[in-house]
Each structure stands twice: as C-alpha cells, then as structure tokens.
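Run folding on both entries below.
>entry_1
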Amino acid sequence: MPTENTDQFVNRVDNELFDGVIDNIDAWTDRMQAVSSPQRLSLVFTVYKYEHITQNTLKSIATSLDEDTFTDSIDTLLNYNFIARRTTTTVGNGEHTVYYRITEIGRDIIDYIIMTKGEESIHEYYNTKTDESLPQI
C-alpha cells in the first residue's frame, strides 16, 4: 500500500470533509483557534445567552478584560463570524449604539458545548439555569 505524505493526507481529508463547498480545512482550523481562548469563548457565550447585546452591556459583564483585550477579542470573533456587529444612530442627538448578536456558527459552537454536557436539550439548559447577576436587556 503506497504511503501518502502529510500534505497528501491533509488534502485528502480536506476534500472528503469540506469538498470545497463552504470552507476548507485551513479556514476551519483557523476559526477553531480563534475561539480557543477562554476570554473569547466567554464573550461568545455571553452574546449567545443574550442573542443580542449592546457593547456597553457586554463590557459591563466582561469587567476582567482590559480595553485592548476586549477590543482584540471582539475583532477576532467578528473576523471569524462567531458574532456580528450592528451600529445604530439615535435621531436628534446622533449618539451611536453598538450591538453584537450571535451568528449561526457562534450558536452552533455553544450549542455543541451545552449538548456535550449531557443536557437533554438547549431548552432544558435554559429552563434550569438562571443568572440573576447579569444585567437584563
């Protein structure tokens, strides 16, 4: 049986798994590295929990992150499509409000983590878990 080198092996798996349809193995592994930071995964979960949240509220929850870490983490999560950003402007005073929302891939990664904990469903998770300390929006 002929042996394949590492590049051939990775290319074979890339073709089998992704088939060039929506991603490739390099983009996927980069994306997983982007969410491998505890701070970034915590931000994704917080946005997931609220579905959409203002930047100020998210900062008030993530108080342990300094401004640079918060900004770098958010930029990485936006770049890899775990969250999305929207800015609104208040008519009259021109004040801007930045909102973050969970994306499909962000939701999928958190759903996977919740389900691997052995919860029967996402609904069961939310029916049994409450966090009164988080500000409500």
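>entry_2
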Amino acid sequence: MKKILFIVVMCALLIGCSTKTTVVNDDVTVKTSTSGSNVNVDVESDDGNVKIETTGLDTNEWCPEGTVTKTTTPDGTMNLVIKEIVSSGKYAGYCHMIQEVNSAEGSINADYYYNEEGSGYIVMDIAGQHIETEWTK
C-alpha cells in the first residue's frame, strides 16, 4: 500500500508537467490525465484498482470552492466536496469541506474546516456521539 501511495504522489507531481502520464512500477500501473480543471488518476495493481476523479480544481486558490474528488476502490467510495469559506460562527474564515465514505461496513460523513495556514477541525457524528478534533500546523 505504501508503494501505491508513493506512486500516486509522484504522479500528482507529474500532472503539472503533462496532460497524460503513465508510471509502471513492479505490479502497479498509475495513469494520470488532466484536462483544464479536471484530474484523473487510475491505479491498477494486484490488490485491485483505484480511480480518483477531481473536477473543478483551481490550484491558484487555497479553498477552491466547488472542487469535487471522487475515489473508488475495491472496498468502497469516498467523495470530497469543497463547499465554501465559512462567513460566520465558530468556523468563520475556514474553508468547509465535506467527506463521505461508503463501504460494506457502513458509511461515515465528516466535515473538515481548515484555514489558509493549514490548521483546522474535523467534525463528525458517530453512533449518536458528536466528535470534534482540532489540528494545528
């Protein structure tokens, strides 16, 4: 799994250099493609295939509102949606991102609030319990 993550990161770095890239390492093949604000990454391995599709990406913005990333794995799906910069309340000034994870074991929804410096909060409700965790850079 570490090898797959390393290859995905390397491909992400290569995306800025070309519109289509293929990297083959042992039993893992990673294909990336970009078109405007859309990025696609396909990872093929003996452990199964992973597909990552991002639409609406603006790399010039720290909170690219409207960006959607959909990840599909053999075990389930994960969606990330960047909603907006919050204008009032506890999270005012923070970028709000929603995460939805679905698998055979169930689903988890989480709200992320992060600032331009990289600090933030994760908020989720699990089994009727409200959980909030803060991180700092």
